[in-house]
Known about the structure:
By secondary structure, the protein is of the alpha+beta class. The chain has helices at 160-163, 286-289, 294-301, 316-328, 347-354, 358-372, 389-404, 412-418, 452-461, 475-478; strands spanning 21-24, 27-30, 37-46, 48-49, 58-67, 69-76, 81-88, 92-96, 112-121, 127-136, 151-154, 174-179, 186-193, 200-205, 211-217, 224-228, 235-240, 249-256, 277-281, 306-312, 336-340, 376-379, 425-429, 435-437, 484-490. The strands form five sheets. The protein has a seven-stranded mixed sheet. Helix 4 packs antiparallel against helix 9 (452-461), helix 6 crosses helix 7 and helix 6 (358-372) runs parallel beside helix 8. The longest helix has 16 residues, at 389-404. The radius of gyration is 25 Å and the shape is globular.
Amino acid sequence: MKKTISIMLSLIMLISAAVIPHTAYAANYKSKNGEFKITTSNMSRPSKLSKGSGFKLGGKLKANKKIEVLKIRVYDLNQFKNDISITRRPKKKTVKLKDYAKLVKFQKLSSGDKRLIITAIDKDKNKININREFTVLGKAKEPVHITKKCKITVSRGNKNNALDKNDDTYWSHGKMTITLPKNKTPDGLYIKWHVLDNEVTIKSYDKKNELLDSYDGYSNKMLNKYYPLDENAAKIVINLKKLKNNKGIARLRVYEKDRVGVSVQRWEKLPDGEADLMVISAHRDDELLYFGGTIPYYAGVKHKKVYVVYMSGDDRLRHREALEGLWSIGDRYYPMFMNFAGGYHKGISGTLNAWGGESYVLSCVVEKIRRYKPDVIVTHDENGEYGHPTHKTVSYIVEKAVKIAGDKSQFPASAKQYGAWKVKKLYIHMYPKNKLVMKYKSSYGELAGRTPYALACIGYDKHYSQHGRWSMTASAVTKYPSSHYGLAYTRVGLDKKKNDMFEHID
């Protein structure tokens, strides 16, 4: 078998510009011993909120025994504290949540990832928790960390350039020694690098100065990299070599065990040959604006290995926004940034010329297809959605690449290195033939009752630099539904059910 099923281990958070309630007409819960049972009906809980917007809880809790104590909390999943906490004693078998709605002031919540926890307790102390994750839009506080509790020294330079919250300041090179606090158990070291290539060694030692963990090399080609630490680590030593055009570490954080916020990025590197679905996006945000819930649906609902390839742009700000966006919707495989020149070029030919010529661009895309061997590829509308030449170029080049990636005589260097690869399906956004419409606005239990489209809205909210210019509700976006595709190429036959890109593959 080429691949194994990958189960997403992360908590997926939701945000967008509107409030989306979750309604469950019947859900059953019971305590650990099974003696206390609750059935919910018409539950209305938040999925995502604009900062400052209100929301009213609704629905009923119907229990087999009196609910003696009812607790309602909103817990911040990055700050590890309650933003709201109320306790009441209804002493009833049936509780209407609307009776307590005014006490839960959602409009006062800060931005960030939250969990609504409704706890019911009977007279025998049996407990039932009903949980729901949601996100309040906007820039949230940085997840809590223990960096300030560490003693940090450097052989040269200003260590504060790596310890502040400004990613435009850097600690460039030298030796950094981090002594961990004695009363804390470490979980990992998180570094935001200035560039991908960093000649670095990171070693951790226990209190007897015996080596525990060692990381060597070039940061694994990741801008944001998490380095797990042994729980017995007492000291970390970083030796970073000075490299041309590299300013080193933009941000460094140390995290405590069991207190690593959900937004702390812990990327995996996708092994060669392991992609199920490859999403090839012109810009860093198009995978959300025009491909909607494709990533959260296939990663979170179908448990596919989804690999995102961004074709244009090389600025670090937009790279970091893309990483935040992908992480927030549940993608855990570090994406590929091709770094072709950004900008609005003249047509397909002008774009390809700016990127080094058609043959060169085609060879790069073919090489990525052969290396990661996706079964299915998704890319842009042939007409560039609203006519953007970069979108058109990506669609054009991907169509050609898919058809020749399986021919070892074409671009033989990558064929020799990775082998030829015959993609099973290519779906093009808004393609007029062999149409397929995905249900990205349907709720899925695997997404905690949320929709893939709402997840896409969350991801887009992380693209702060684009706010005011674009949105998920802009006419140039909504005119081209993100759930509409066409099967442009297939080696496994035409779709019959027309509701799944992996039909005839799974």
